[in-house]
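Q: DsbA family protein, please. Structure only.
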Amino acid sequence: MNEITVWADIRCPWCWMGHRRLRAALERLGTAGREMTVVRRSFLLEPTGPDSLDRTVRGAALNSWGMSEARWEATRSRVAEASRREGLGIEMNEVLNVDSRPAHRLIRLAVSRGFDPEQVWDQLYTAHLERREDLTDPETLRRVGKGLGLTEGDVDALLGSDDFAAEVEADHREAVAQGVGSIPTYVHAGQALSGARSVDDLVEFLSRVEARR
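A: Structure for DsbA family protein:
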C-alpha cells in the first residue's frame, strides 16, 4: 500500500497546520495524491503528561520551559500569523497545558468505530487549539465525542477503562525508535520529513520519494 505516515500530537499547532497542508499537497498532486493513504499516528510531546503545573501553555513556557517574554511573544505571533494563512485561529496565549493522552485515546476510539481519521483529528485539533477546551475533562470529552458521532456512553466506557492506552503508548515508542524527534514528521517509503513545512515542501518531498521508487 502506498502510505504516508504522519506522527503528530494534538497539542502541537504546527501539526494542525501540517494536517491541512498535507491535504492541500495531496490535492495538488492530483491522481498521484489520491493513490496515497495517510496513516495518522500519535506522538506525545510529554509522554507522562505536563511537567509544569501551569494551566496555560504560555504559563508553562515562561515558568518551566525557560522562555523569555520576548521569545514567547515571537513564537505566539509566528503561530498566530501562520495559522491565519491556513484559515485557522490559533491563539497560544490561552491554549491549555494538558495531557494529550485522553484525546489520543478518543481519536483511537472514533477511528475504530469507522469515523474518518482526517475529520477526527481535525475536530480534536479544533477543540484544543482553537476553542481552547480542556481535553482532560470528562464532560468536554463527552461533548467532543458526541460531535464526532460517539455517544456519552462510548466516552464514559473509554474513560472508565484502559482502552487504547497501550496503542497510543506503542505509537509513541515506535516513533522514538524510528528517530522521530520533532513533529509533525511525515514518513513515506522509508524517507522522513519533519517540522513546519509548506505545501510546496510537502509536494516536493512526496514527488521526489515517488520518483525514486
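A: Brief note, in case it's useful. The chain is about 55% helix and 10% strand.
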